[in-house]
Amino acid sequence: MKYIKKIIPADKELKNKLLSEGWTKLKEPSNLGTVILFSLPFMFINGAISIFIAVCLYPPLKGILKTGNKFSISFTFDFYILLFIVIMLLFLALHELLHACFIPNVLKSDKTYWGFNGFAGFVYTNEKIKKDRFLIISIMPFFLLTIVLPFVLDIFGWLNGYTIFLCLINAMGSCADCLSICLVAIQVPNGSYIMNNGFETYFK
Predict the structure, then answer these.
(1) Distance CA 147, CA 151 (A)
(2) Within 13 Å, how many C-alpha atoms sit on residue 149's CB side?
(3) What's the pLDDT score for residue 132?
């Protein structure tokens, strides 16, 4: 796995090679703006799922929603807000790390990359991956950090407004992953392989 500053643009030669070898280009948004637009429904759905879990596990939140009282997290500008930002960035990095953990032979792969784009991290691979593994790679950060983690935090007594907020941010931030999951699940036949070329996705 290698470090890069940004995702490598699509290689035209690789595109022509893939098409000549019988690969099919996935019908997907062609730029970041349309990705965000088509991801919005998943952002709201994921957020609703996260809030539902929080309401079930955290009684104070349920009371706030029933009474209509405001629920907020406030900080003074000191060490704690710096800690808040650091933990949130680490949580976002954990999201990407979980993607990487499920990529086959990720540590030995010379076609898998990681990096930071502004405040957001990313993991990207050019490896040929089976459809079912691709779906697992895509869903795991949402499943583990939004579905499973609140139950773990509740068991240890660490579920509170702040940790609920982190799980909610992860849920809403997973919207692009969920869009990708739907596109692949609908268009790619079972048993097929998937390969990325920059922001383009191919299957065979």
Answers:
(1) 8
(2) 20
(3) 96
Note the pLDDT tens digit of each residue in 145-168: 999 999 999 999 999 988 999 999
Segment 47-77, tens digit of pLDDT: 999 999 999 998 887 666 665 555 555 555 5
Asked if residues 169 and 91 have their Cβ atoms less than 8 Å apart, the reply is yes
Distance CA 169, CA 95 (A): 11
Six token digits for residue 69: 């009282």
> In this structure, what token pair is assigned to residue 64?
């706030």
> Rounded to the nearest 5°, which phi and psi values hold at 69?
-70, 155
At CA 170, angle to CA 167 and CA 176, rounded to 5? 150
- Higher pLDDT: 32 or 170? It is 170
In the chain, how many domains are there? 1
DSSP 129-170: EEHHHHHHHHHHHHIIIIIIHHHHHHHHT--SHHHHHHHHHH
- Residue given tokens 């890069």 in the structure block: 4
Structure tokens at 14: 């690789």
In which domain, by residue range, is 145 found?
2-203
Question: What distance in Å separates the CA atoms of residue 152 and residue 199, rounded to the nearest whole number?
Answer: 35
Entry pTM: 0.85
- Residue 170's alpha-carbon distances to 87, 99, 193, in angstroms, are 13, 13, 28
By 3-state DSSP, what share of the chain in percent is helix, strand and coil, each rounded to 5? Answer: 60, 15, 30
